[in-house]
Specification:
Distance between the termini: 45 Å
Bound molecules: adenosine-5'-diphosphate, magnesium ion
CATH architecture of one domain: 3-Layer(aba) Sandwich
CATH class of one domain: Alpha Beta
Radius of gyration: 31 Å
Number of helices: 23
Structural class: alpha/beta
CATH topology of one domain: Rossmann fold
Length: 699
């Protein structure tokens, strides 16, 4: 008994040196860790192929053959000829030459398993696995697991075959100790096999069916317990009476609402209702507002701030960059004009002279709303009564900044938080990343927004594209030309790229002919950046050449053309964000994706998808399927709250929904998990891996 918790080094075949390797490379410390380290794919070892029909195109092949001759070419190169009646083949070794020489005696028969390859017109196999026919893996079961590995593991002697042996030894010792962690009722309801059956079969499947049952069970476990822990935290938070009370809608809200030049979309109205009920609800709001670019999130933010003001509190709106903060401030001031609410802008470049009265206004409460960058949460800023913080484009804010914000709330209570993002996050990912947040979605565009026509061209069509841009400019419109950031040796080298592009554009659009071109990139000073941005935003420049610094939020309604150079270098979501910069005004708009000559098939597929849809959520789903959730833009920094071992957010969306639904049901019936039948759940949740700190108070 008690084997599960035993140090891995005491497992036969491990020892201190391999134990250190397993710990360092794979984080495996105990037998329990080991048996939860699963194969990532399986090889069918049931078939033995005659040598005559071995093809170099397959990933692996298994032959049963007799050794004909051994030839030691040099001390590090052993060549062995084998034959099986259908033909003969060379087997090659560059390592373990002495040991292999001794083992492969002429006349003896072995099972060889490895990757066939073509060498000098003949097929051979380098470093196959070698087994005597009686103890070949096919005698243990049909499917052999392949485990994730590293070079260090392999050179430390922990090959795939050794890993299989270790798993087998570990299971023999401790499989009977594995405790069921799901109540019988849940297992029956969701058709899940017992946990110990699943663990045995994920390593050594009896057959395909058993493997399917096993993986389904283990994936469900992973997703279910993750959701259960997230939902439990949310439940605890929603019960806590720590919300700054905002029971009224208030007059500023009505004043603004009644003077809007348009009516709100259904989605905007719904989201505002959700926020109103959160603010009045007695607990702290933590809401994520998702909405595609141009869906009208700013208005929702403004009305939310006005509810705070109407209840006697202050509100702040934080943007990730100075340019965006300014733009927000300009827009918001317009909306606020009829309300009498006082609003100011605070950024890194606010002068000391402007800053003093501003800080005083925040401290004595005469300033109601402040818009700015992270300067808003820096130390000298004191609020009289901060009740609501709106964070735009949340992924640019780090955890530390969130904590700083948290501490600025009124009466020692955390401010209500509204996080806005235009990065559409697929449902499955949102459930995991923000499983403990409430999510509102604006899934409807304001009327009159025109679809952006998107096309993909090669460099040979550039002259035609320039002609088209000249036509658009002649009609009074403006154009963006965006270049990717280029990283060389991990250093950002966007300059040469974008500056070359700038030269090219200057040639095609000469000053003598009346064209004005602005340029913005990451290495410019803030003043240069603002100067150029402003020239374009105010219509003085016809073309803005830039890197992706314009990606988020910048609003130039008169721009009708978005050209994206080397488009294959961008991710889908990023392309979508960029495209969202046009089509904001009354004119028909165009997005022209220019691909480089050596664009790969995958990239081409992404670009074609861009041309076929403008639905941000569909694009995000596809992006995740193509690249995996780890790479999804906007989430790299946040990462997943826990790492998933076997389930995949991209592929197991349905199972995730099922698991979440199940977890919700469990908590609805037994919110504090006191029911004895839920004891296994409580036991499982006590494990360290469910200790998800940052996400319970994301902001
Ligand atoms: P987001 O921040 O979601 O990308 P914005 O809030 O900047 O979008 O809104 C985009 C544009 O749509 C703005 O010019 C805004 O004035 C306008 N707008 C917002 N809501 C509506 C509406 N309900 N009807 C018409 N136009 C709207
Ligand atoms: Mg916006």
């Amino acid at each position: 008994m008690g084997e599960l918790k035993n140090d891995i080094q005491f497992l036969p075949g491990v020892g201190p040196r391999r134990a250190a390797l397993l710990k360092r490379e794979l984080g495996i410390n105990t037998l329990d860790d080991l048996i939860h380290f699963y194969p990532f794919r399986y090889i069918d070892r049931s078939t033995i192929v005659p040598i005559a029909s071995v093809s170099p195109d397959v990933a692996y092949v298994q032959i049963k053959a007799r050794v004909v001759s051994r030839n030691l070419i040099n001390i590090k190169h052993l060549s062995v000829m084998v034959e099986d009646g259908s033909g003969s083949m060379e087997i090659v070794f560059f390592k373990g030459v002495k040991w292999t020489w001794d083992k492969l005696e002429p006349g003896r028969e072995f099972i060889f398993f490895g990757k066939p390859q073509l060498f000098n017109g003949r097929i051979n196999i380098v470093h196959p696995e070698i087994d005597a026919p009686q103890d070949s893996p096919s005698s243990r079961g049909v499917l052999t697991g392949v485990y994730p590995s590293t070079e260090k593991l392999k050179s430390g002697g922990i090959t795939g075959k050794v890993m299989c042996k270790l798993q087998s030894a570990a299971l023999a010792l401790c499989l009977n100790e594995v405790q069921e962690n799901l109540p019988e009722k849940i297992r029956r309801m969701h058709g899940l096999c017992p946990l110990n059956y699943a663990i045995k079969n994920v390593h050594f499947p009896d057959d395909m069916k058993a493997l399917e049952l096993a993986t389904r069970r283990l994936k469900f476990d992973e997703l279910f317990f993750l959701q259960l822990s997230l939902l439990k935290q949310r439940y605890i938070r929603s019960r806590a009476e720590n919300g700054i009370p905002m029971p009224h809608v208030g007059t500023p809200f009505h004043a603004c609402y009644n003077s809007l030049p348009y009516s709100l979309t259904g989605a905007q109205q719904r989201v505002i209702k959700e926020i109103r009920s959160d603010l009045a609800g007695g607990s702290q709001m933590n809401r994520l507002l998702q909405g595609d670019v141009g869906s009208g999130k700013t208005m929702v933010a403004v009305l939310s701030c006005l509810i705070a003001v109407g209840n006697g509190y202050q509100a702040c709106i934080m943007a990730p960059t100075e340019v965006l903060a300014r733009q927000h401030f300009a827009n918001i001031s317009k909306y606020l004009a009829p309300t009498g609410v006082r609003c100011a802008l605070l950024t890194g470049s606010t002068t000391r002279k402007e800053r003093k009265p501003l800080l005083e206004g925040l401290a004595d409460g005469t300033l109601n709303i402040v818009v700015g960058t992270h300067a808003l949460i820096e130390d000298p800023v004191r609020y009289k009564a901060l009740g609501l913080a709106v964070i735009d484009e949340q992924h640019r804010f780090g955890v530390g900044q969130r904590a700083a914000l948290w501490s600025k709330g009124a009466e020692g209570m955390p401010p209500h938080i509204l996080v806005m993002t235009a990065t559409p996050i697929p449902r499955t990912l949102a459930m995991t990343l923000y499983g403990d947040l409430d999510v509102s979605v604006i899934d409807e565009m304001p009327p009159g927004r025109k679809k952006v026509q998107t096309m993909l061209i090669g460099q040979n069509r550039l002259p035609a594209m320039y002609r088209f841009m000249r036509e658009q400019i002649a009609l009074g419109r403006q154009a963006f030309v965006v270049y990717p950031m280029i990283f060389i040796n991990e250093k950002m080298e966007d300059i040469s790229n974008v500056e070359q592009g700038y030269e090219e554009i200057l040639k095609a659009f000469p000053l003598e002919e009346g064209y004005k071109v602005a340029i913005v990139h990451g290495q410019q000073s803030n003043e240069d950046k603002s100067f150029n941005m402003k020239a374009f935003a105010e219509g003085r420049a016809n073309i803005l050449v830039s890197t992706t610094v314009i990606e988020v939020g910048v609003d130039v309604p008169n721009a009708s053309v978005m050209v994206i150079r080397s488009a294959q270098r961008f991710g889908l979501s990023q392309l979508h964000q960029l495209r969202g910069r046009v089509g904001r005004g009354a004119e028909k708009s165009y997005c022209i994706l220019v691909k480089d000559p050596k664009t790969g098939a995958d990239a081409l597929q992404r670009l074609q998808l861009m041309c076929s849809t403008d639905d941000g959520f569909e694009i995000a789903e596809q992006d995740m399927k193509m690249r995996g959730p780890g790479d999804l833009e906007g989430t790299q920094q946040s990462g997943l709250p826990v790492s998933l071992n076997i389930a995949s957010l991209a592929r197991d969306g349905l199972l995730l929904e099922e698991a979440r639904h199940c977890a919700q049901g469990v908590l609805d019936d037994d919110p504090s998990l006191q029911n004895p039948e839920n004891a296994p759940l409580v036991h499982e949740l006590r494990k360290d891996k469910y200790d998800i700190k940052d996400y319970s108070n994301i902001s």
